[in-house]
Structure formats: C-alpha cells, structure tokens
Amino acid sequence: MTSSKMVKTGLRKVDVSTMIDRSAFLSTLPATSTDRTTALAIVGVSSILFAIAVPFAGIPLPPVPAFVASYQSALAVSDIITAVLLLSQFAILRTRALLWLATGYLFTAAAALVHALTFPGLFAPTGLLGAGRQTTVWLYMIWHGGFPLFVLGYAWLKEADGGARIRGATSRAIYASILGVIASIAVFAWIVTAQHDLLPVLLRDGHYTPTMLGVVSFVWSLSFAALVSLWFRRPHSVIDVWLMVVMCAWLFDIALSAIVNVARFDLGFYVGRLYGLSASSFVLAVLLIENVRLQARTVGLVGRLREQSASDRDFYGKRLALYGAVVESSNDAIITKTLDGVITGWNKAAEQLFGYSSAEAVGQPIDIIVPPDHKAEVRSILNRIAGGESVAQHETVRIRKDGTALDVVLNVSPLKSDNGEIIGASKIAHDITEEKEAREKLRREIEERQRIFETSQDLILVTDGYGNFIQVSPSVKTILGFGPEDLIGHSATEFIHPDDLENTRSEMRAARRGAVKRSFEARYYHYDGHEVTLNWMGTWSEPVKRHFFIGRDLTDKQAAEAQLRQVQKMDSIGQLTGGVAHDFNNVLTVITGTIGILSDAVADRPELAAITKLIDDAAERGAQLTKHLLAFARKQPLQPREIDVNALALEAAKLLHPTLGEQITIMPQLTEDAWPTLVDPGQLSTAILNLALNARDAMPEGGTLVLETRNVFLDDGYASMNPDVVAGNYVMIAVSDTGSGIPAELIDRVFDPFFTTKEVGKGTGLGLSMVFGFVKQSGGHIKIYSEEGHGTSVKIYLPRSTGVQETEYEALQNVPITGGSERILIVEDDALVRQYVVTQVKSLGYAALEAANAAEALTIIDADKDIDLLFTDIIMPGNMNGRQLADEAARRRPDLKTLFTSGYTENAIVHHGRLDSGVLLLAKPYRKSELAKMLRTALAS
C-alpha cells in the first residue's frame, strides 16, 4: 500500500509518493496479517512433514559424510549472510536487541563450521582439531542450545520501537560481537576437544545414552522457551513472526536429530538437519526478499524524483521569472547588498525613490543613500543580518540623489546561498514621508482633542446608541461630583432627572434621524443628590454609532440671573419707594408747615391742642419713615467725609451701652491702623445703631455683641461671585451677635423694605433696608451670615479712602504668595464658593479634593491616606458641622491638620464658643495672599 502526500510549493502542489507498507527495518515494522498467515502456513506444513517423519526416524540409512559437509557449509553461509544483514540494520537502528540477534546468527555459523571440522570421517577419520568421539555431539548441543539463548535475549530486549539503543560508535559494538563469538566458540572447542574426557558420554557405539536424552531435552526446552517468549512479547514485528517460524523448525530439528532418531545417519538424522537448514534460511529469505522489494521501489522512486526534479526546474524557472517581474513591478524599493554593504540589486522603484539608476547604484556602497549620522545604524543592521536575524518595520531616514531627506520603513532579511550560508541582505524600503506627516498631523489632532477633552470646563459625554456611557470627561467631577469611572458602562437614565428623561430621548432620536447640533436642557443628579441643570449640545455620528454631547453647567448662570433679578428687584423697589417717599415728603412738608400755625391758633383750647400734637407726632414719624425709604432708595442727601472708623465705632459702643441694656455684653475688636474711609459719619452711626438694635432683639435672654473693624481686600474671585462688588481695598465693620439667627429660607429677604421677622408692632422692617441703601449709596458692600440657633454677623464693607500711604498691614498682605504641593481636602456646602476655593487652592500648586458635606469628606479621608490638610467651613447643614468633622477626622487620622473658615469673624466665632482659642480660622471673604499664608501656617502647625 502507498499513500500520496501533497506538498504545496510556491504556486502549485507536488505529489510525492511515500511507502508506508514496508521498510528495510523488519525489526520495527509491525507484522501484517499476510505475514502471520504465511508463517502459519509454513509452520503447518512443517508440522505435517514432521509428523510423517517421526515414525520412520530410526530407520538407518547409508552414511553420507558429504551431506554433512554440504549441510554445514550451507547453514554457515546462510547464517553469516543473515547476521550481516541484521548488523547493517543495527548500524542504523542501534538497538541492543538487534545486535543480540545478529550475534546469535554469527554464533550458529561459527558453531556449524567447528562442528563440521570436528565431524569424524568428514575431513579426517576422527575429525580435525583433536576431536574425540563425543566432540561433535557436545558441539551440536552447545550450538543448538546457544542459539535459543540469543533469541531469548532478543525477545527480552525488544520493545515496540526496537528497544534500548547503544551509545557510541556502532562499529565498536559489531567488532565486539564478532570477537565475542570467536572467543566463545574457541573456548567451547577447547573444552570439547582438549577436555574431551572430562565430559559425560552422550553417544556410545553410534547410539544415544540416557545423559544425551537429558541434555537434548534441556536444549529442546530452551528452544521452546524462546518460542513462547517471542509469542508473548507483543506487538510482533515482521522479524518476530519469522523468528517464531525459525524456532518451530529448530524444535523439529532437535526432535528428529537428537530425540526420536536412534543413531547417526538414520532418517531422523538427515531430516532433522534439513529442518535446521530451513530454519537458517527463513529470516535470510525474508530479508533478501525485502531488500529486493526495497530496491525495486527505490528505482521507481528515483525515476519519479527525476521526473519531479525536471518538473521542479521548470516550475522554479517560471517562478524565478515571475519573482523577477514582481520585483521590478513593485512599488517599494527592493535592494540587495553584500554583508559589506555593497549594492548588488536595485529595482525600478529604488531608482524612482532614491534618484539613482540601477547602473549608478549597483557596485556602490549603500552609504550613498545613508545620512552621515546614520552610518552606524547601517553597520548594526548588517551585523544582525550576518547573525541570521531579520529586521522588520524599522523606521529611519535616507537621502535621495538630490539631497532630499526621506522617511522610510525598512524590512531587511538575510540572503542565503544554496548551502544555507548567509551571503548578503535583501531590503525592502517603503517611503513613509507623506504617511508620517499625516500620522503626525493626526497625532497632534488627537492630542489637541484629548487636551480639550481633559481640560474642558464643560461636561463632554460619549454614549452608544443605547445611551450607555462610553467616554466621560474629567470635568464631571467638578460638575456632578462623580468620577468618570462612576459613569462609564452605566446608562444615562440612571443620572437624568425623570422629568427630563423623555425629552432627552426624543432629542437623541432626532439626532439619529439626521438633526445636527441639537440644543436642549436636562437636569442631572449630583453625587450629593441635588439637581444640576445642564444645557446640552448633541450630535450623532453614524460611522461610529455614537452620540456626542457637550453639557454646560447652568448653576453659575442661574445664580447670576437670580442675583441680577434680586438687584433689579431692589432697584425697582428703590425706585418705587424713592418716588413715594419724595411725594410723601412734599405732603409732609405741607402738613408739618401748617400744623404749627394750627397749633398756635388753638393754644387756648387744650382739647384741640392735644389733637394738633398728635398730628405733629404722626407727621414726625412719617418724616422718619420717608427718611428711611430714601436711604434704602439711595436718594438721601449724604455728607461724606474722611473718618476714622475705629473712633466712630468706639463712640457708637459708648452710646450703645445704655440702649442695649445690662444683659448685652459689648466687645469692641478693632484692628490697628484701620484705613480711613470716605462716608457720612451720621449715617454710619445710624447704621451701626440699627444693626445693634436688631442684634438686641435677637438676644432677649442676653448675649454678646461683637463690634469689629478690619482692613480687607476683596479680590476678583469674590467680585465674580458678587456682581455688585468692585475688587479693591475696603474697611470692614462687622456687627455680630450670639442670638437666635435667621432661617436659611429668609436670608435673601432680610434687606427687603417692610420685611421683618418681629411681631406685629415691634418693627417697621426698614432698619436693614436703610442700612443696605446707605452702604450701596456709599459705594460699599454688605454681607450677612447667619445660622439658626448660632447667631448673626453683618459685615459692612466701605471703600478705603484714596491718597493715603501704604500701611503696615497692607505691606504684610502684599508679600510674595507662597504655595505648595500638599493634598488639601476642601469642605464647603455652597457649590459656588467651593468651586472658587478649589480654583484658588489649585492655582497655588496644591492638589485639591472637594466635598459638599461632612459625610462625603469622611469617605474621602478614609479612602485617601495622603491628605495633608482639612480646610472646612464651620457652619454646615446636616448632622455634623465643621468642628465635629474636624474632631472625627482627628480621631481617624491623628496626623491630619485642620484649617477652619467661616463667614463669621474670628472674634465672633471664638466668643460664640464654637472654636477653642488658638484654633486656626480664615474668615470669609479672604484674598489669595491671606489664603496662601493661612494654608502654609496650618500645614506647618
């Protein structure tokens, strides 16, 4: 049987027949059913002939010594040839089992020759070599007992793959085998000749002795054991099957020649030796037949290989011509060169790329296209090629004939001769100049877009067609409080306000239908739960199946609009109240002017005089009311002059003692070197008095009133959050109390005229509105801080008077600002203030983290062990204020430093009992230099 293996070579398939049914190595080739059947048939015929010969084995026949000589010679020649063939296989397979079997055949050949030489009457009457009457019998027993031992050894050593193999040269093993056989036969020959008389008698008067029967039975048993061993040592190879046939014939030989016959030259004697001769021929015949068959197949294979070779030459010739055409038609430069860098091949694309013709380039060093600073690179590549290495996708620079630099990518491979020796290099050069420029342009565009994505103050979102977030810009942390990782992979529906969900979906559907740059508003939930309104611009990209959204936070805009509405409302109210007060003043002028005349006319009538007195009191009260209204409307006549606010505050404190009562403690806290301000002193005193009276009413059980002055600078950041403020230097006058405070929902209305939280009949609601109007008319700013249950602090900021020398305080505030690189956690419940503080802290070089409340801050503190400073507002909504947050943070992180901030002044905070003396506090508002100074102070504390 033959199988055909298809090998694909180049552009076609080649059919190579491979023999798999026979080989020269019968010791490893598995036996087929044909081998077993043939062997069994031969054994069967031999058995039949044996059975026929047994009854006649003792019939004497005429002695024919020439038969013995012919038999022994043929047997020796057959065994020697078999041994040579087996040794030739051993020289290739190197198996110990095969060597052992070949040695057995050499042993039988040598024993047959010695047996023939010592046989009586063959070459000499008593045999050669000093043979005696028992010599040939003993040699026969040694001969027929030795071969089974070698077969047994073969059976024990063989395995499925031939068994264990020898190491070293096979020739030495063969020589050792031959010398071993010669030595052993020489020893046995010496024993059965020189020591003849010491051996038991096996043959007497031409007949077998009982000893002979015992010895021959042992020899026969050895042969049978060899047969059984071969049978059980599976799997059987071809040689195993025929060795079993040999051992069967060997058993028949011994039985007829030495057991069932009577003496020499009887029928058994002759037939037994014919069996022995057959036994020596079976394996030889199989080996010879297989060799002839192998030779015939080899001749056929050589013929097919010749045909194949001719076909391959034709094929490779065509392929070579094809490859040549491919090389010449390639768009890439293909260059071959020696390992010394001399050009040997130069295709048309190389001519076009580098400007040199093939005639100009071939024979020249490759350096003609290499820039001077890249020559070492070329040498390095050639060294790698010489070592058998290939160079792939190597980007470098080469130069044209005209000196133009080219960006190229090289693929260099070793060029080998027919015997595999590396004789040069094959290089493919692809021009990537334009590609590299395009790639660099694309890289810059991607980089720019990535920078826009990372630094955008607006929220940039990318979702798939189902609304799942794919990309989220880092600005989401500032706007929504989430990190990008919190949104990516989630559906947008988890974060959009339910009332805006359907509108968002309809906008997305419209975008997918082709509408571009859709603009709409939708509310998203912040991390802390509040709603954030965002204005969205969205579009759909069909090629990538993605929605792209840019969302602008409207929080600042809405706050600014609300503030603007408040200003407009106050202006409108001011216009109204100013007009009403002006007209009412005209009416009161008539009333107050005529009431005196009426009073004189009825002076003699007490009952009418009392009525005129009531009218006069009412007119006075109306005049005061109109005065307040005009103050709120910023239309009262002011007489500003440059004053010392400290002196005015001390004077006001003296006047307040009898007014407020003994239950109120007044504590002036006046800064040294307070700047002068340009203001109406009477109106300022009235404003302080109004604020003090409001504070008294908020402390019915008594308390502390703190009266402070301080030089401050309101910077651009503060001005951006308070549109009515112009950045600059101000003198702050603060009136703080420890009273009941103002509810958060009412804080925006306290400056409205006629608004009051007092009982009916206990206030007009014009005190704070009058203060508000006076401050605004004076070009100042007013700010109120209040927490229900903690007290109120009202701060008046009056512009510093111009044209004065720089004070010591001012010089201290203008020292160079120092920042740092530490990590600071900023806790502030007001989103606008928090954003402002984060910006300022980052501008100083610090790493800023932010939290809207104490619970969120503690989560960040637990997660980030590298925070250096906690910067927290004191008064915050929720279950934990800033002081409690600082205590809990110190319990968890004893090494964590703390800086407090508050809208209350430092003195008011300390005396309210909410901070210990010496605890660091930065009062709002503060300038950048004050923030920088306090941060460094806190970090160094």
TrEMBL record:
Q: What class of enzyme is it?
A: transferase
Q: Where is the Response regulatory domain?
A: 823-939
Q: Name one GO molecular function term.
A: phosphorelay sensor kinase activity
The record, for InterPro entries, names: CheY-like_superfamily, HATPase_C_sf, HATPase_dom, His_kinase_dom, HisK_dim/P_dom, HisK_dim/P_sf, MASE4, PAC
Residue stretches spanning the membrane: 39-59, 71-91, 98-117, 137-157, 169-192, 212-232, 241-263
What the entry lists under CDD domains is as follows: HATPase_CckA-like, HisKA, PAS
For this protein, what reaction is catalysed? ATP + protein L-histidine = ADP + protein N-phospho-L-histidine
Ranges in coiled-coil conformation: 425-452
Cite the Gene3D superfamilies for this sequence. 1.10.287.130, 3.40.50.2300, Histidine kinase-like ATPase, C-terminal domain, PAS domain
Q: Which PROSITE patterns match?
A: HIS_KIN, PAC, PAS, RESPONSE_REGULATORY
GO BP field:
regulation of DNA-templated transcription
The entry's protein name is histidine kinase
Q: What is the lineage of its organism?
A: Bacteria, Pseudomonadati, Pseudomonadota, Alphaproteobacteria, Hyphomicrobiales
